[in-house]
Design goal:
Elements (H helix, E strand, L loop, with lengths): L5 H11 L4 H15 L7 H16 L3 H31 L4 H17 L4 H18 L2 H39 L2
Length: 178
């Protein structure tokens, strides 16, 4: 028993067996995947929510629960990779950890206050300003800014591949595991 009442189970089965359910989820996942190149949309989270919806409607078993657990870990890791890659690349280009922390805090604040591009703009302005003041050298600030932008680009590419793996695991779940 999966804990659903009889009418809930009938409704879920009707949705699961409908001709629109899987195509709609696939479109949502495609939107999530390609939104990763915009950087401002939480594409991995969108993909994860679509897969969670599939699991809720179809029901979870031990094997599908394990697959969903792996998908969840990929989503969490992919969402963390942004800050790691941006910080690493900025530090390699000479930025201090203080400026990186300021850039991350500014990026989070900017994302909340000025979506859709406020986060990346605030992070860039934050690291440029702190490095310019710290080194009294505008070019050093620009190098650090280039580093954080390079890290952002690398993170986008990595997150895209993580999204492809998440969708691939969903396809395996959908086609091979009942």
């Amino acid at each position: 028993m999966d804990g659903r009442s009889g009418s809930d189970q009938v409704e879920m089965e009707a949705i699961a067996n409908s001709s629109w359910f899987v195509p709609v989820l696939a479109v949502i996942m495609a939107i999530g995947l390609f939104s990763l190149f915009l950087y401002i949309v939480p594409g991995l989270t969108i993909i994860w929510i679509a897969i969670l919806t599939f699991g809720i409607v179809k029901g979870f078993t031990l094997p599908t629960g394990i697959i969903f657990g792996v998908i969840t870990l990929l989503m969490i890791g992919g969402n963390i990779i942004d800050n790691v890659m941006m910080g690493r690349e900025a530090h390699k280009s000479g930025a201090s950890w203080i400026s990186i922390a300021v850039a991350i805090a500014a990026g989070i604040t900017g994302t909340i206050l000025l979506p859709p591009f406020g986060g990346i703009i605030a992070a860039v302005v934050g690291i440029l300003t702190v490095e310019w003041i710290r080194n009294r050298d505008f070019e050093a600030g620009l190098r650090s800014t280039g580093g954080i932008l390079r890290g952002c680009g690398l993170a986008m590419i990595i997150r895209f591949f993580i999204g492809v793996v998440m969708i691939g695991l969903w396809v395996v779940w959908m086609l091979l595991i009942r």
